[in-house]
Design a protein that fits this description.
164 residues, alpha+beta, Pnp Oxidase, Chain A, 7-stranded antiparallel sheet, 4 helices, 12 strands
């Protein structure tokens, strides 16, 4: 078995997009920063999100069954930190940005590079995390902006390529 510290160190070399996951429903409105998001399939359009089982978001999301994956642009670096800390009340986190209510009733970040509006299809548990498999029901994208990734334990901005 690989030591946890060695694994975490190696994972810091795997760059990932920075996202704010939001949800709303019977369990309330909640949001958190996450980089453990990836595409599963384009038919049907589906994504997965990994969330620590000890996180409040895990239980809230399981109960609400809907979410938005808001892919952050470079201009949202500070907002990422706000949604990553447990020291800031949920109402205050949401007050720090502008939100649009989606057809699923979930807040979507105005100005996100892309927002995937999803329904949770299934949940698996692997180690310390819940893996939420989600079907994309709608999406909102903008044509400009720079990407925000987390790599080497720090934020990095990526320009949009001319080919995009």
């Amino acid at each position: 078995m690989i030591e946890k510290s060695r694994f975490r160190s190696a994972m810091s070399r795997l760059g990932a997009a920075v996202n704010i996951i939001t949800t709303n429903g019977a369990a309330g409105r909640h949001g958190m920063t996450a980089s453990a998001v990836c595409s599963v399939s384009d038919e049907p359009a589906s994504l997965l999100v990994c969330i620590n089982r000890t996180s409040r978001m895990n239980a809230v999301l399981a109960r609400n069954g809907v979410l938005c994956i808001n892919v952050l642009s470079g201009e949202h670096e500070a907002l990422s930190g706000i949604f990553a800390t447990g020291d800031i009340a949920m109402e205050e986190r949401f007050a720090r940005a502008e939100w649009i209510e989606t057809s699923l009733g979930v807040p979507a970040l105005r100005g996100a590079l892309t927002t995937f509006c999803c329904r949770v299809e299934s949940i698996s548990e692997v180690g310390t995390h819940g893996v939420f498999f989600c079907y994309v029901e709608d999406l909102i994208s903008r044509a400009d902006g720079e990407g925000l990734i987390y790599f080497g334990r720090g934020y990095h901005r990526l320009p949009l390529s001319e080919a995009a």
